[in-house]
Amino acid sequence: MAGQTTDQTGFSDVAAGVDAVIPARKQSWFSYYLPSLIIFIVAIAAWELFVRLFSIQEFLLPAPSSIYNSLSGNWRQLIQLGWFTTKEALGGFAIGCSLGILVALATARWTIATEALMPFAIAANSVPILAFAPILNNWFGVDNPVSKMAIVAVIVFFPVMINTVRGLTLVNANALELMASYAASEFDVLFRLRVPNALPYIFNALKVAAALSMIGAIVSEYFGGNRSALGVYITQEAAQFRFANAWAAIILACIVGISLYLIVLTVERFAIPWHPSVRGEEG
Predict the structure, then answer these.
(1) Closest-CA residue to 85 (of 230, 244, 224)
(2) Where do the DSSP E strands lie in 113-165?
(3) Which of 76, 91, 214, 264 could cross-link 149 (Cys pair, CB 3.0–4.6 Å)?
(4) Model confidence over 73-104: pLDDT tens digits?
(5) At what angle do helices 195-221 and 230-239 cross, to 10 degrees?
(6) DSSP 256
(7) Which DSSP symbol is given to 229?
């Protein structure tokens, strides 16, 4: 009985400790995001007040209330337009990231590939993406979503390739010596050491690429595209001085871009839970 009483007492102490930790974590989460939420609310309120006090014309800066009314009033149409552009962004994201990782694997494996490909990658990355848009539209057709996917792929390719190469090559020398002492094959070194070391770099690049993909899709549509595209809708509404509608579409594009970023962030937490950045520790 004495032992049983001790066990029950110990269990109650543990339960009390857990109950004390959970509110602390909730409070920590709340206190972490509270300043950002306050700044957001204050910024929106100041924006609305500024427009009303100084009678700013809508073509210069619509009030947040006008943008919200346009967003809620045209929600169904905007969802259809946003989904069309999101498919272009996702297609280009998948193509560009896949090619970036494959080229990085070849570049990190063979020195001759590094010397041959890196100068071209740097040169192509220095060319403004706006210069590629008319060319790719001419190749694939203005109304063809593939032309927009190609533009997005070009945008996301270089960040993914460069970061993946860094992750594959910046490996601890002691770890390489340890693998060599075990007579590990190049295949084992690649997939047991280099790829795990590169995963944090890859996910950092994917988070950047997720935001860039939506930007690239929208910008590519400014040079012409299907009337069901979000970028075409923005240019048409702005040309007809319906700037609140254009801003509503821009807000929707921002929401999609943030959502893509959060999806990549969630996948990262499940893929590399062991990394200090995911655990909230300093690397």
Answers:
(1) 230
(2) none
(3) 91
(4) 889 999 999 999 999 999 999 999 999 999 88
(5) 40
(6) H
(7) S
